[in-house]
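Progress note, project year one: complex with NAI.
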Amino acid sequence: MNLVNYHTKDAIAYVAMAKAPLNALDMDMIAALHEAMDRARRDSAVLGVVLFGEARMFSAGADIREFDAPDTLRPALQELCSAIECLCKPVVAAIHTCALGGALELAVGCHARIAMIGSRLGLPEVSLGLLPGGGGTQRVPRLVGTTQALQLMIGGKPIDAAQAHAIGLVDEVVTSDLLASAAAAVIRLATGASCRVTSRLPADVSSESLAEIERRRTQTARLSTPAQAAIVECVDRAMKHAPEDALAFEWRELIKLMHTPQSRALRHLFFAEKEAARLSTGAAPEALVPIRRIAVVGAGTMGSGIATCFLAAGFPVVLLDVADAALERGRDAIQRALDAGVRRGRWSCAESANFIDRLTTATDLEEAASADLVIEAVFENLSLKREVMQRLGKIVTHDAILATNTSTLNVDELAAATSRPSQVIGMHFFSPAHVMRLLEIVNGRATSPRVLATAMAIAHRIGKQAVVSGVCYGFIGNRMLEGYLRETDLLLLEGASPAQIDRALEAFGMAMGPCRMLDMSGVDVSARVVEEAQRRADVSRDGAYRLVCRRLHAMGRDGQKSGVGYYRHDGQKLLPVDDQTTLYASWAAEFGIARRSSISDDEIVHRCLLASINEGFRIIDERVASREGDIDVVWTNGYGFPRHLGGPMYQARQWGLPYVIARLEEFAKRYPREPSWAAAPLLAVQAAANETTRSTA
Ligand code: NAI
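Model obtained:
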């Protein structure tokens, strides 16, 4: 099978990348493109070349797997782009659907670019801790100016063809006949207009550009992301050095970045995310339940957010609740979310109006009858949810899927209430549901594979990162959060302050420390979960378990909403609560917990994280999660775990499992009353295997 197809017509050579599905620019593809360009050069009947991608897209860029062996790589894409520039015949890139990373660099190495309307163009390398190493840091600033180029490379966000045209990244946007337009451009360049060679364009050395470089330099030094800092330095070279020197510098920097732990971790997550969502793209459409209409039951915080997700993906939605007032509040919340999307440029005013036009509301559950997917988001109450699911089971069509957004209840029990359990699944959204990317898909004991595949595909359609979880208390994410918060409260009783705990975990990289998080999401919400957990027969905890959370709630200190919780809230400011030390000391005394004058940040980070990680190994052992990567995807997308550390399980592997075991043993010795410090059996086995491999290596 050819990687590149070549044919000529009317004095034009058409060079097509033909490696489904993404036209990945790996070493073989680059070699094949070299050959095709050379063939066009040698053919005297050929005036110029149209370079395009067959099937789904122009190209999604480099094959990231090749980055695992950086020392075997050559600057092949740089060389290809230089060869194209020196071809003596015009090469025009005809872009459809997307040109990302190396693919955009390749296009920028051509003499002109024509893009199909709606295509996405971008340099997202930074999201993998890398930089564009195919000459992008040199050519893009020459084409669009330093400021725009830095924005594209440091932000990493793709732009659409119209925006790309506005900044000069593409020469023309067309609505049809892409190849014919590209051919016309080749003829124009070959017969009259001079051929622009991007790397020979004058560098953008305006005073604004120099100032922009300095501004970005200060910014990236503060954020300390190696990739962003290296991009700034490469663009600086583009202004001050000969193109050959600057290209060599770019390549050296890229290889250095490939070796960094940050890039390795980000690449791990890149693959983990694809793997976690694999069912969503792998299942054949005819195998799925057709989903045309959605019903959401419960118009509260979650219901309105979930409805927003589906409306914004173009689905008609019926929102159901028991009272008109609740429906009005829900509709207002949806309108506000859509307005915010307009402000952020996610959709236009007209699109937003179309979305809301497809929303209907009703108080009669029978209105769910025509929906293919019903998601219930009523109060977290078992008997209420059972009743709602049971009624829905009688209302909807035979093929319809019934999903529950419960965060703690047993999906199998809810499924049993419907008398059609194979059609029931959990879809656990995170708050705010229209913003958070993570969606745990809870695969019940009886859930049919077709229903699971449909739920995954729907998650993909509404732009969510899906991860499959088995049924258990808290699923993957919240189950691991339990230990993290348990240790937070205990550390407070032992003498750490909320500010110190948050500072330590935020310095580690967590987006938000646990005390701030609890205050924001509501201490009451957490306290109710704790009380429920204590009522459950299988959770035996001593009285100090999550004591701070429970006591604060009992005092009405529910966090941000009540002005005081773990912190005192003064507008946006978080201040220490006046009586926190006295209170925590007296609660500690009540349960015989010794206070210490100082607790190290290292202890805070390790106790909170290892409590979660240990549970993560139990989750794998019980097959609640299929892979460690799935857990990493959950925690980086839903719990603010730093992406550049790859997720909690990846981090555990970086620390080394024997080290993890040693720290667990240390905590187990210090807290014999806490059964959770015993190492998960799977962790113990794997740590021992690690030790053996090491000693025999
Ligand atoms: P909420 O209290 O904001 O909204 C619940 C809504 O359900 C209310 O509008 C209520 O009127 C409605 N409702 C009650 N009984 C009903 C019935 N029989 N028929 C139709 N509507 C009914 O609650 P929230 O926070 O939206 O939570 C809903 C579900 O989502 C719960 O199961 C919760 O555990 C889950 N969840 C909540 C998250 C959060 O952060 N709030 C995150 C993930 C899941």
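Residues 285-469 form a domain with the Rossmann fold fold (CATH 3.40.50.720).
The chain has a mean pLDDT of 94.
No further modelling is planned for this target in the current period.
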